[in-house]
């Protein structure tokens, strides 16, 4: 009897996992957000943006500390470069005065938090800047991120954001950046 119950329980668990993956991939294939991404996107710490440095770098006040955040895997132009003000205006419009959720990946030697930031509507600022074409894919931060690379290539092909300008200059050509993992 115990063997039958055990076999049933294992079979049931495997069936549930199979159904979850089926629903996840069906949702992703139809252009929706998958189950796995929704679960990951609930992580992080709530805070408020206190100061804007650039579209991809800003100060966030969390419950226990105030940190400077650099968005992972992307690089937007500084405000003095072409497209910098537009990139900042785009990300500020996404957030408005609403709280944000910070998912910290790591900290560099200077204490800069490298991570992903989400709006109250669960939109990734990293992803939204890439989709709109107001940021480059920054390979040293995340060289194994084909999704952001594809978003970057799509923005270039469709001449969105920075690529609607004559010759956008990648920020790392004018300012050194040390956020990549050691």
Give an overview of the whole structure.
The protein has 182 residues and is α+β, with helices and mostly antiparallel strands. 36% of the residues lie in helices and 22% in strands. The protein has helices at 2-29, 35-40, 84-95, 125-132, 146-157; strands at residues 45-54, 57-62, 66-71, 74-75, 100-107, 113-118, 136-137. A five-stranded mixed barrel has the order 1-2-3-6-5. A hairpin with a 2-residue loop joins strand 1 and strand 2. It is elongated. The relative contact order is 0.14. The mean pLDDT is 81.
Spatial strand arrangement across the major sheet: 1-2-3-6-5
Q: Assembly type of the shown chains?
A: single chain
Total strand segments:
7
* Low-pLDDT windows of residues: none
Q: What string gives the helices and strands in order? A: HHEEEEHEEHEH
Give Rg in angstroms.
Answer: 20 Å
Termini gap: 55 Å
Biggest beta sheet attributes? 5 strands, mixed, barrel
Q: Estimate the helix proportion, in percent.
A: 25-40%
What's the shape? elongated
Strand content: 15-25%
- Give the integer mean of the pLDDT values: 81
Query: Based on helices, strands and strand pairing, what is the structural class?
Result: alpha+beta
Can you count the helices?
Answer: 5
Question: What is the topology?
Answer:
Blueprint: H1 2-29, H2 35-40, E1 45-54, E2 57-62, E3 66-71, E4 74-75, H3 84-95, E5 100-107, E6 113-118, H4 125-132, E7 136-137, H5 146-157
Parallel strand pairs: 3-6
Antiparallel strand pairs: 1-2, 1-5, 2-3, 4-7, 5-6
Helix pairs in contact: 3-4, 4-5
